[in-house]
Structures are given as C-alpha cells and as structure tokens.
C-alpha cells in the first residue's frame, strides 16, 4: 500500500512527511526509501537540535528531496515543513494531539498548496485499536470543551478504563520485536 501511494505521489510531483512512532520503523522506512531511490531526510530523537534546523531548511528549499521520515514525538512539534503537501501517518500515536501537532507541520504560514493527510491502518491490528482509542480520547476532550454536548452514554466506566489501558503492554510487545530487513525483503514489496 505504501509503495503504491509513494509512487503515485512522486509521479504527481508531491512531497511528503512520513510519521511513525518507533525508531525501528524509521529504520525499515529508510531501507525502503533507499531501495526505491527516493531522496529523503530522517529525523528522530537522536538528531541534534542544530541538525534539525539544517534538515528542515534543506527539505523546504530543495524540491528534489521527496520525503522526510520523522518520529512523531521528535518531528511533530516546533517544525515548519511547508515543502511537503502530503502527510502520511504510518502508525498512530496513542495521544491524538501528537498526531494533530504532526500534521500541522506542513499546515503553516507559507504553505501554498492543499495538504492531504493519509493514515495507514490495517484491519484487526494493534493500529486499529490505537486509532479507536485515540478517537475516543479526542471525543472525550471535545466533550470536555463543549460542556453542553456531554454524552454520558459515551463515557461508561469500561470505556474510560479501556482508553488508558494497553500502552504499557504494547510497549512490551514492541520492545521484544526484532527487525531484520534487507534489500531482498524490499524487492518483495
């Protein structure tokens, strides 16, 4: 799915930001983009502050750089990336405001094109569960702000508890995953 989407975006002259939660996924995306010969930059928690500004400036100035892969927490706040007109969430954050902040990286002053947001979700996966919980959290926040629209049926005891379960369990699962990917694996994509 991602391969087809990126191919269409590249052919259409678009540039994209690809956000993910995990550095292991950034590693996989980096191998994939290199194999496809897409020029890209990468930003994660290990990127020095001075280097972040350099990458941001170069991405915005150089239309030959097709993609910028970023961890949502490191690249989702305080950056102006109007060189892109497409945001792809490879996976979602448990906190919907983090994803909202990330997509706003190219919705900034100076953006001259319409911005399109894609969220990649597979059925019956952890991602589907994360998106469902994030949607519930966002709706809870909206209800808290819109006092008159509070719906008690939405906020049942089990719903609230479920919203805040699973993050630690998921972290344990992710930490125990081993990623080994090479060019032969990418050729199968």
From TrEMBL:
Gene3D superfamilies: P-loop containing nucleotide triphosphate hydrolases. It comes from Panagrolaimus superbus. Coiled coil: none annotated. GO terms for biological process: chromatin remodeling. The keyword Transport does not apply. It comes from the Eukaryota. The keyword Hydrolase applies. One of its GO terms (cellular component) is Swr1 complex. PANTHER family: HELICASE SRCAP, HELICASE SRCAP-RELATED. Pfam families: Helicase_C. Keywords: ATP-binding, Helicase, Hydrolase, Nucleotide-binding. One of its GO terms (molecular function) is DNA binding. Residues 1-161 form the Helicase C-terminal domain. Its main location: nucleus. This is Helicase C-terminal domain-containing protein. SUPFAM superfamilies: P-loop containing nucleoside triphosphate hydrolases. It is found in: Nucleus.
């Amino acid at each position: 799915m991602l391969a087809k989407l990126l191919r269409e975006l590249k052919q259409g002259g678009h540039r994209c930001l690809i956000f993910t939660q995990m550095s292991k996924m950034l590693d996989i995306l980096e191998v994939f983009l290199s194999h496809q010969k897409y020029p890209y930059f990468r930003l994660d928690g290990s990127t020095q502050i001075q280097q972040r500004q350099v990458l941001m400036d170069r991405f915005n100035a150089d239309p030959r750089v097709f993609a910028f892969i970023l961890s949502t927490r490191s690249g989702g706040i305080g950056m102006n990336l109007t060189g892109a007109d497409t945001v792809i969430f490879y996976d979602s954050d448990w906190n919907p405001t983090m994803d909202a902040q990330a997509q706003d990286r190219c919705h900034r002053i100076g953006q001259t094109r319409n911005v399109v947001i894609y969220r990649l979700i597979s059925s019956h996966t952890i991602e589907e569960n994360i998106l469902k919980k994030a949607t519930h959290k966002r709706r809870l926040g909206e209800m808290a702000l819109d006092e008159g629209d509070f719906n008690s049926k939405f906020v049942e005891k089990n719903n609230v508890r479920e919203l805040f379960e699973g993050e630690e369990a998921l972290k344990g699962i992710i930490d125990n995953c081993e990623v080994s990917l090479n060019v032969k694996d990418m050729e199968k994509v």
